[in-house]
Amino acid sequence: MSEVRIGALCWNQYTDWPSLLAAGVRADQLGYDTLWTWDHLYPIIGDSHGPIFEGWLTVTAWAQATQRIRIGLMVGANPFREPALVAKMATTLDHVSNGRAILGIGAAWFAEEHEAFGLEFGSGFPERLRWLAEALPVMRGMLDGTEPTAAGPRYRSKATRNLPPPIQRRLPILVGGGGEKVTLRLVAQYADMNNVGDGPASVRRKEAILLEHCAAVGRDPAEIERTTGIGAVFIRDDRAEAERLFREAFRRNRIARLWSDQPVGTPEDVAARLAPYLEIGYRHLVAGFPATFDEESMTRLVTEVRPMLERGG
User: Using CA atoms, how far apart are residues 77 and 26, in angstroms rounded to an integer?
Assistant: First the structure.
C-alpha cells in the first residue's frame, strides 16, 4: 500500500465563522494531512458581492484549535503584503501551530479586490511574477535565518532578522500556479511544494515542464512535494443525491455555472476520477469543500476513497 495524502481546502466565502472553524477542526479529527483556505478579500467563485473571511487570521485560528494537521494558505497573494512581513507571519503561525505551518504564495490574479482595497496590482501578470521572484529569496532567507536583504525594484528590506526562528528546521514554501515559463521555474528554484490543477492532462504537462526547469537549475525534483487541487468533493451512495448536493452548494455560493468533471458521486466514482493523478506522481490531493462543508463527504473521502487509492496505487 502506497501513501496518499489528502488536503482539505475549506472555502472561506459564503459561510459563517462557527461553520468555517468547525470545518477545520473536523478535517484535523478525520485525519486529513493538510488544511487550507484562500487568501482573498472578495469571494472569487460566483458573485464577488458576498461575505468572505480573511485568510491569515483564519489559518491562525485553525492552528490554535487543531492538534496535528498542517496548515497554510492556498495560496497567499504576494502583492497583499511585503515578503519580509509574510515570512514573519508564517514563522508566528509555525509557533502557534507547534511546527505545522506551510507558507503558500503565488503571484495573485483578482484585479477587483486589489482595486477595491487600494493594493498594488502592477501592469499585468508578468510584472507580478517579477515581484514574486523578488519576494521568494527574502522569504526563504528569513525562514532559514540568513538575514536577507532585498534591493530590487519592488521590495526594500535590509538584513532582516527573524527571531524566534520557525520551529520547523525548514518551514516549507508552497508556490501555487502552473505558468510554464516563470512560475514553474520559481517552483524549481525555491519551492518545497507546488500546486497545479485543471485536471490530469494539465497536471501531466506541468509535471514534464517542472522536471525540465529542475534540470536547468540543478534541483532534485524529489525535494519538491507535488500537490494538486481536485475540485469540489461530494460523496454519496446515490449519485443523484451527490449531484444534488453539489448543485445546492454552488447555488448557495451564487455560482451560476456548474463546474464539470468534478469528484462527485459514489466513493468508487471519486476514486476512479482521482486515480490518474497518482499515475503522474501527484499523491497529495487537495479537495475543495464549499460551505456548508458537507460532513459525510469530508468523512468518506479519507475513510473510504483514500484506502481505495492506496490499494490501487
Answer: 26
CATH superfamily of 5-312: Luciferase-like domain (3.20.20.30)
**How far does Cα 94 stand from its chain's mean position?**
16
* Cα–Cα dist 70/82, whole Å: 24
d(CA 250, CA 243): 11
Q: Measure the CA–CA gap between 218 and 182, rounded to whole angstroms.
A: 16
Mean pLDDT over all residues of the chain? 96
* Every domain of the chain and the residues it spans: 5-312
Rounded distance between C-alpha atoms, residue 179 and residue 191, angstroms: 14
For residues 28 and 58, is the Cβ–Cβ distance under 8 A? no
Tens of pLDDT, residue by residue over 100-141, are: 999 999 999 999 999 999 999 999 999 999 999 999 999 999
Return phi, psi of residue 181, to 5°. -90, -40
